[in-house]
Amino acid sequence: MIKFMRNIYLFFVTYFYRFLTFILPIFIRKKNAQDGILFLENFPIESSGYQYRAGKWKNMFEQNNFRCEVVTIKEDKNEFELLFNNSLQFNLKSMHKKFRHCLYARRFKTVIVRRELLLYNDYGNLFMDKFLLKIHNNVILDFDDDIAAAKQQPRKIKSFYGKILQENGNKFNDSLRLYKRFIVGSKYLKERVLQENKTISEHNILIIPTCVDYDKYPAKTYNFDKEHIFTFGWIGGNQNYHLLQGIIPVLNNLSKDHKFKLLVIGGKKFETQANFEIDFRKWGLNTEIKDLMDIDIGLMPLINNDVSKGKCGFKLIQYMGLGIVAIATNITVNGDIIKNEENSYLVNNENSNWYDVLEKVMNNKENFIILGKMARKTIFERYSFSANINKYIDFLCA
Question: How much is the pTM?
Answer without folding.
Answer: 0.94
